[in-house]
Design a protein that fits this description.
The complex is a heterodimer of chains A (about 500) and B (about 200). In chain A, about 70% of the residues lie in helices and about 5% in strands. Chain A is mostly helical and about 500 residues long. Chain A has a two-stranded antiparallel sheet with strand order 1-4. In chain A, helix 6 runs parallel beside helix 12 and helix 9 packs antiparallel against helix 10. With about 200 residues, chain B is an all-alpha fold. Chain B has one domain. Chain B has seven helices and no strands. Classes of the chains: A mainly alpha (about 500), B mainly alpha (about 200). The interface between A and B is large, with 53 and 38 residues.
Chain lengths: ~500, ~200
Amino acid sequence: MNTVVQTCYDDKVVLRLIQFSVFWALAAMTVGVYLAAEFIWPTMDFGQFWLSFGRIRPLHTNGIIFGFGVSALMATGFYSVQRTSHVSLFLPKLAWFCCYAWQLIVLLGGLSLLAGWTSTKEYAELEWPFDIAITIVWVCFGIVFFGTIANRKIRPIYVSNWFYGALIIVIAMLHIVNNLALPVSIDKSYSLFAGARDAIVQWWYGHNAVGFLLTGGFLGMVYYFLPKHAEQPIWSYRLSVVAFWSFTYSYIWAGPHHLHYNAIPEWVQSLGMVMSLILLAPSWATMVNGIMTVSKAWPKLKSDPALKFIVLSLAFYGLATFEGPMMAIRSVNVVSHFTDWTIGHVHSGALGWNAMVTYGTFYFLVPRLVGRELYSNTLAHWHFVMALAGTLLYILSMWAAGVSQGLLSLTVDSLGEPSFAFRDIMSSMKPYYALRLLAGLIFLGGTFMMAWNFYKTLKGGTLVRAEIPTVPEEWRVRSNPRVSHSTEVQA
Amino acid sequence: MAANYNLIKVLLAPGEVIRELGRHNSTLAGQLKHSLVLLILLPPLFSGIGGAVFGWRLGANEPLLLTIEQAVVISFLYLLSLGFGFFTTVVIARWMGTTYGASAPLDVYISFFTVVSAPLAVASVAHLFPHVFLNVLILIPALIWSMALLYRGLPVVLQIPPERGMLMSSALVGWLLVAAVSLLGITVGLWTIGLGPAIRI
């Protein structure tokens, strides 16, 4: 039986995942804007349960994190692991299964949330049938990713793969443990954990979903695409490896800071706070590494609008990873917790960091995948301006609203009674919510412009077949190279 | 002609001031230092008067009034924070400048950041009536104006290519956002551990 080694990368699945990611960005951000409008006009649910805040809020968060975010991470993970391993994807059909099965989970999971199915755990609201489906697809994602690395032709495993690898392993661990539950019907299950222990497990999951998916996974994206984009090696490879291990070690402890002043042991709260503060060091190590790498690539800014997104995303990454540890300090948290300051913090990360770095990466990838110029650099420039304006407006309005809420709710009269009723505080927030709605509309408008730009870029184009380059002798894997199913095509 | 430059010129024709600074005009730099003293005094002054006379309106109906003593102490701390923030920004910008190919003296940075901060300092007149949303509405356009001055002016003043200026401005925006949220966090932290004023309602 003759075999022919596959000479091209599998990029079709990458492009399809990017298309799905952009679709979910549009859908989930539109839902977010609708939610923002409900804060001003609560009757916008028109008496329909499925339009109520309690149901469409998890639709928004799940759509963004799992639809937009994970699709983008799968796309960029599949793209970069091939290039850094110098082989095509391991089991490419399994990669296609991951692509479509994941979209089906997001779609049906979203509909189940609208129908009122919920486990009530934040960012883990999907009920047990979806939890099992997610586990299966995630394991398949891991098989494709780690199989490709195992087949690599080049000896070192580049640092971006460490971050993507941590994403896959840690999210699997968190998802399985946090969703251990006893099903009582197709749409309802009860957690195996109870009381304060349930809360601790939930926020061990919740915080590390932010850590290893929205931070670690996207850092993998930065470490591969930023040097590629800038055509510069990473400023300090050693720093990136140190940052990876210190990030992985310290993040996993920080979850209890979500439970300050709650019914969990005080030492657990203190541990969460201290580890959150330590976390600043590896986070900023990456930010410095990114900024220094891009600082040498300034001539590229003339012709490349996408690099601006990545530059700004690093600034917002610096902000979000500073603000988070600061808000984990208990004397700050007592004001910020349960207020819109937290919402502003989350969006400084989600809009300023995750969305911007993804947009920058997509602007880099889409034209290259089809071998064409971007349809409109001007449109991309205006998208950048709108994304920046929307993010800043969002953060500032929520800072002002959150600090007002926190201080008003802590103000007491001479008898020690709260001076302001919760209802009065909330009813005074409408102007801030109007600003937030405006910010969301601006950001969403920019995302629609990007989608149109991609549509016009891709229209009529065909995928470029990117050839796998040969690896120089000194970098080759020394042991007997393993030849996998993916690198062979039976002739 | 350089003597004609003053605070009004900084506000009405910042482009002209920035171009002049780009030529490293030392007379202008000296004049701008005097403007800086005035600009840095404005926000604490306005906030002190506003807090004591009209009271802070955080959104609910009743204003939170400060005593004169409290207003003076808070305004003084505000002044210290602004001064510290301004000079650390100048020092950090100069330190960053070497990465982006700039070699301007410290005076140029001080003058440039005086121009950049002018819209925000003047817009702090909103502190006279410290309704949070009113302040947000007035300070956000001022912030946009300041950011535009930073992005457009920095490469001109430091005589570096616009692309390098964009990168350096973005790094500075990152620093300024962190500084802003630090101020927020420190204030809230001090307040909750009991260093804030007792509020009269």
